[in-house]
Amino acid sequence: MGRNPDATRALAFCGLATFVTCVVVAHVARPSLDPLSHMVSEYARYGPRLLITAGFAAWSLSFAAATPWFLLHRPRRWSRAIASCGLAAAAGIVLIAAFRTQTSAGHLAFGSHLALGGRLHDAGSGLATLSLLAAACLSLGLNTLTVRRRIAVAALLVLCALASAVLLAIGQEVGGLRQRILLGSACAWEAVVLGSRPEDGTSGFRARPDRSAERSPA
Questions:
Q1: Over residues 43-54, mean pLDDT
Q2: Is residue 186 part of a domain?
Q3: Helix count (H) and strand count (E) of the chain?
Q4: Which of 35, 79, 147, 178 is the most exposed place for a label (fewest CB within 10 A)?
Q5: CA distance 99 to 81
Q6: Model-level pTM?
Q7: Is residue 33, in this structure, part of any structural domain at all?
Q8: Domain membership of residue 78 as a residue range
Q9: Does residue 213 fall inside a structural domain?
């Protein structure tokens, strides 16, 4: 995979697009599940289970496939850290897909206790969230991202911070909205980094070669 980063980047984009599509379709297929309070992973409990599970699996594959592209960025120590965070996020998302949540709208049913599967799901969610937050913060230090893309990343981080602060203060009844903002921001961040051109620090265009030496007189 590492020998052809452009191919793995295309695969990463496909995985990301598949995840977004599956989440949108799940909302349409199950309109009775209130998106303000219920988490996206709850579609695996109430349906459509296979669709949302496939979506999370595709997103996990997306981050794994993005690793070679992340490693092309500079400075190298930052890109390696981001790639590691991406793989950790992929592992967390695998746990989310493999084990269903036991909570509903963020609450565990009265008298119930978290089983191993529920704990693994929550652990995967926490791992993915922290890993993606770390990766987004680290990406601000990449000198191969254009200024516009770094501003976009900073704006996404500010949005997540403000949304979390405000919605957490409101309460669990808007926990689903907060999660969707975080998920949307994570998808946008991945698209921003995947859309860059790390070999020359430009976005979609290769740098023109310097021909000043050719024009100078002998």
A1: 94
A2: yes
A3: 8, 2
A4: 147
A5: 27
A6: 0.87
A7: yes
A8: 5-105+117-202
A9: no
What is the per-residue pLDDT across 21-48, written as a single tens digit (0 to 9) for each? 999 999 999 999 999 999 999 999 998 9
- Provide the 8-state DSSP code for 185: H
Angle separating helix axes 116-139 and 175-194, nearest 10 degrees: 50
Distance between CA atoms of residues 118 and 87, nearest Å: 22
Report which DSSP code applies to 217: -
Q: Evaluate whether residue 191 is within a structural domain.
A: yes
- Which residue, chain included where needed, has tokens 């704990």? 119
CA distances from 200 to 49, 61, 72, 77 (A): 43, 26, 10, 17
Least confident of 15-19, 85-89, 118-122, 204-208: 204-208
- Residue carrying structure tokens 């100078």: 216
Query: How many domains is the chain built from?
Result: 1
pLDDT tens, position by position, 69-116: 999 999 999 999 999 999 999 999 999 999 999 988 888 877 778 899
